[in-house]
């Protein structure tokens, strides 16, 4: 469906589907609904899988359709207006960084994106000889960047403590709390703290459900629900003392897997917002045209990325073969593409109840390149070894023909370094692939092509823009790599049998959100009421049903579930 606005879309977005209609899975928020596009995903071959996920990602750019439920979308005037209003608040911090701070906070993928974005825009500011003013918080601390730590998401008090620590001594703080499904207690606690200290804090909630669909069950050990916090913020929106930025982007291709579309939409939305703020600080007038031009670069990234669908499908097939044979998928990246690889790999363990060794990401320079606050975490154990040197020393000796290795780099990186690592890997496996980004006029050397016969080469046009233009291309490459890796790891686990229809049916229950999702999946697949499905899940966790078990706090159920191998399978 082509856009109807004065700026036409670059890509075709799917026509409005069933999920927008009144009554479609009406008890569920958009982020937890099943996407009609992928309903038969479990029966798809690799080529079809890529097409289905391509169409799901394209829904990010859909416009609102007034003939059905009128959800705010990315291109809605109300959303564009809110982005511009927040950008003006961010601009004030950029122009007075000594006493101010911009804090991005999230859990899981949202927290890793917070790290990525904070570092990117600090780097942009340093290049302009400005003082950096961005920082990040991730639930569970920096260990959550490289290893899944889902339980801290349920702790609102810990979220408040982390926010106080980070902002100590600051006079003005723009706080951006990211919760794709408007559900994370960790973020709710931080937003609540901000609203009690509006003389210092401007709270911004970023997510992809309407406020009326925010999670509304009791948060253990706390006095509010997430929805109550979001409603308070909504009431402060008109006075610009708080903002809720929540366009609908449609259900995930894999039901509830917000690391995918939710993560991509977060990246698009916040990078657009910050770029606009930096343009404004350079005395460039922020107009709707300016916003749309930036958003169109992300549409272009979608088109360029999925023009490589056949090669992406081949990588999906090879990765699935490795996992089916109890092999591994290793993602070796350079620069921020290394972090994109780590982000994708880390989420496979909780999402598919996989062993953390099944899919792993590594980055050149390790923690030095990652630029995390706590520095090197290698002393915590093998799961926290992330450098290429760690890979060569600890992993490569056991690599075999059942394993698949993917290299992620740009033509601006040291390609000779890539070739050296490929040479080492070739001695162990022939299953070598690459995702390489080039600018028009750059070509992969013949020596590299001989080593990696069928690389996915994404070629980007030259951007004749101001200083920020180089960052736009960097952001495009990161998003493109994310889309490819989301498709590869998700598709591989679908082919491995971890998915029924578009429901993940083998996942770890690590927090209250996962517990509720498990109950919801049971309801939809069995047709039984919530109470019966809850009892069935508890019986699966504990092995028996007792009255005491039913009256136990959610945290106890989570601890019991984490001590077992599987709950839904």
Structure notes:
Helix 5 packs across helix 6. The model is unreliable at 1-6 (pLDDT under 50). The protein has a five-stranded parallel beta sheet, with helices on both faces. The chain has a five-stranded parallel beta sheet with strand order 7-6-8-9-10, sandwiched between helices. A two-stranded antiparallel sheet has the order 11-12. It has helices at 46-58, 77-95, 109-127, 143-146, 156-167, 185-195, 226-237, 261-281, 288-306, 309-324, 336-352, 367-370, 388-395, 415-426, 446-451, 468-496, 512-526, 530-542, 547-550, 554-562, and strands at 100-106, 134-138, 172-178, 201-206, 243-245, 329-333, 359-363, 404-410, 432-439, 456-460, 499-500, 503-504. The radius of gyration is 23 Å and the shape is globular. It is an alpha/beta fold. Helices cover 46% and strands 11% of the residues. Helix 14 (415-426) links the parallel strand 8 and strand 9.
Descriptive keywords:
single chain, 569 residues, alpha/beta, 20 helices, disordered N terminus
Rounded radius of gyration (Å): 23 Å
The low-pLDDT segments are 1-6
| Helix share, percent | 40-55%
The best one-word shape is: globular
Task: Compile the SSE list and pairings.
Blueprint: H1 46-58, H2 77-95, E1 100-106, H3 109-127, E2 134-138, H4 143-146, H5 156-167, E3 172-178, H6 185-195, E4 201-206, H7 226-237, E5 243-245, H8 261-281, H9 288-306, H10 309-324, E6 329-333, H11 336-352, E7 359-363, H12 367-370, H13 388-395, E8 404-410, H14 415-426, E9 432-439, H15 446-451, E10 456-460, H16 468-496, E11 499-500, E12 503-504, H17 512-526, H18 530-542, H19 547-550, H20 554-562
Parallel strand pairs: 1-2, 1-3, 3-4, 4-5, 6-7, 6-8, 8-9, 9-10
Antiparallel strand pairs: 11-12
Helix pairs in contact: 1-10, 1-16, 2-8, 3-8, 3-11, 5-6, 6-7, 8-9, 8-16, 9-16, 10-16, 11-16, 17-18
């Amino acid at each position: 469906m082509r856009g109807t606005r004065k700026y036409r879309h670059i890509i075709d977005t799917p026509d409005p589907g069933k999920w927008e209609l009144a009554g479609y899975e009406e008890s569920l928020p958009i982020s937890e609904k099943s996407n009609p596009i992928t309903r038969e995903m479990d029966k798809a071959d690799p080529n079809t899988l890529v097409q289905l996920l391509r169409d799901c990602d394209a829904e990010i750019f859909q416009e609102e359709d007034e003939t059905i439920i009128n959800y705010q979308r990315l291109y809605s005037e109300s959303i564009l207006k809110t982005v511009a209003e927040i950008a003006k608040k961010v601009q004030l911090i950029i122009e007075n960084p000594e006493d101010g701070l911009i804090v991005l906070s999230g859990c899981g993928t949202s927290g890793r994106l917070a790290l990525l974005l904070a570092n990117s825009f600090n780097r942009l500011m340093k290049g302009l000889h400005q003082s950096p003013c961005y920082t990040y918080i991730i639930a569970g601390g920096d260990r959550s960047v490289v290893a899944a730590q889902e339980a801290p998401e349920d702790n609102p008090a810990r979220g408040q403590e982390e926010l106080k620590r980070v902002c100590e001594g600051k006079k003005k703080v723009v706080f951006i709390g990211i919760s794709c499904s408007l559900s994370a207690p960790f973020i709710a606690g931080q937003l609540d703290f901000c609203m009690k200290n509006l003389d210092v804090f401007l709270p911004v909630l970023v997510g992809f459900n309407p406020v009326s669909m925010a999670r509304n069950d009791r948060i253990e050990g706390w006095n509010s629900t997430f929805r109550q916090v979001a409603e308070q913020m909504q009431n402060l929106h008109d006075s610009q003392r708080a903002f809720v930025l929540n366009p609908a982007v449609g259900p995930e291709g894999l039901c509830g897997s917000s690391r995918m579309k939710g993560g991509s939409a977060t990246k698009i939305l916040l990078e657009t917002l910050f770029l606009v703020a930096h343009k404004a600080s350079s005395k460039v007038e922020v107009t709707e045209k300016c916003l749309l031009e930036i958003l169109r670069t992300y549409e272009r990234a979608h088109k360029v990325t999925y023009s490589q669908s056949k090669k992406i499908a081949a990588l999906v097939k090879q990765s699935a073969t490795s996992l089916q044979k109890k092999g591994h998928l290793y993602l070796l990246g350079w620069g921020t593409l290394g972090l994109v690889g780590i982000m994708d790999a880390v989420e496979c363990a909780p999402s598919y109840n996989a062993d953390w060794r099944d899919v792993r990401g590594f980055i050149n320079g390790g923690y030095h390149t990652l630029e995390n606050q706590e520095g090197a975490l290698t002393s915590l154990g093998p799961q926290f070894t992330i450098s290429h040197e760690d890979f060569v020393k600890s992993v490569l000796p056991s690599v075999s023909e059942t394993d698949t290795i993917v290299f992620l780099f740009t033509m601006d990186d040291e390609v000779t370094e890539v070739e050296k690592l490929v040479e080492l890997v070739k001695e162990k496996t022939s299953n070598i692939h690459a995702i390489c980004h080039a600018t028009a006029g750059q070509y992969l050397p013949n020596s590299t092509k001989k080593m990696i016969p069928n690389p996915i080469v994404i070629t980007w046009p030259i951007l004749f823009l101001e200083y920020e233009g180089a960052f736009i291309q960097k952001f495009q490459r990161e998003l493109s790599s994310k889309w490819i890796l989301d498709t590869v790891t998700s598709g591989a686990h679908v082919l491995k049998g971890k998915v029924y229809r578009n429901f993940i049916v083998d996942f770890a229950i690590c927090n209250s959100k996962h517990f509720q999702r498990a109950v919801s999946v049971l309801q939809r697949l069995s047709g039984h009421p919530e109470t019966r499905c809850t009892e069935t899940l508890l019986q699966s966790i504990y092995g028996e049903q007792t009255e005491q078990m039913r009256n136990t706090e959610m945290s106890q159920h989570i601890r019991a579930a984490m001590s077992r191998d599987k709950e839904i399978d």
